[in-house]
Amino acid sequence: MSHLIAPSLLSADFMHLDKAIDFINTSDADWLHYDVMDGVFVPNISFGLPILKSIRKACKKPIDVHLMIVNNDAFIAPFKEVGADHLTVHIEACTHLHRTLQGIREAGMKAGIAVNPHTPVQALKEVVNEADLICLMSVNPGFGGQKFIPNTLNKIKELKALLQQQGSKALIEVDGGVGLSNYRAIVEAGADVLVAGNAVFAAADPTQTILDLKK
Ligand code: DX5
Ligand code: ZN
Fold it and tell me: Most buried among 85, 112, 117, 161, by the most CB within 10 A?
């Protein structure tokens, strides 16, 4: 499988979300990445359910929701209701992660686990078979436009080996500081999905940038 590109709406112009969604629909973007922050798990607040509900009506591509919140279980059903296709929760935020992942799948969504830069890949060992997607954070979550943490490349390789060892088909997604200068190394290390916020939305030609990130 060639790698997928998931532009992060966090870097779009919020005055013109309609244009951002048109761009997602007409470009070679594979998914829309939607970052939800509660101001508690991360030191920032972004957007939540009502905006996703509106976006869902216009967006023709899968919506990949990345929850950066503390109370994940309470929001599984609400995010399904507003049209999330994938729901990713942080391992650091879920006391009963196994149950949360089962709940997401039972609700009819793909279940993802996000992993902060300080969390070892081995912490995923007992849960990878409950997940469809592992999102390795390559920045500390909370903001777009940060610098890629190079050790993520080692974590991708280690995760790839762990998934093989456990017989898991989960996709490896990398989120934060991904752009034209480093995407190739990230894909070569074993990533399946690249989230790109600033690299796409701040580019002079976002459509061409997605094509370039796919080369
Ligand atoms: C950060 C978010 C990312 C962010 C990526 O907390 O999870 O999805 O939007 O933005 P860039 O690609 O600009 O680092
Ligand atoms: Zn994200």
Answer: 112
Give yes or no for residue 1 having a pLDDT over 80.
Answer: no
Q: Which domain holds residue 18?
A: 4-213
Helix, strand, coil percentages for the chain (3-state, nearest 5):
40, 20, 40
Is the per-residue pLDDT at 81 higher than 80? yes
CATH code of residue 177: 3.20.20.70
196 in contact with ligand 1, CB cutoff 6 A: yes
Question: What tens digit of pLDDT does each residue of 181-207 get?
Answer: 999 999 999 999 999 999 999 999 999
Provide mean pLDDT across the span 21-31.
Answer: 98
Report whether residue 48 contacts ligand 1, using a CB cutoff of 6 Å.
no
Total domains, the chain: 1
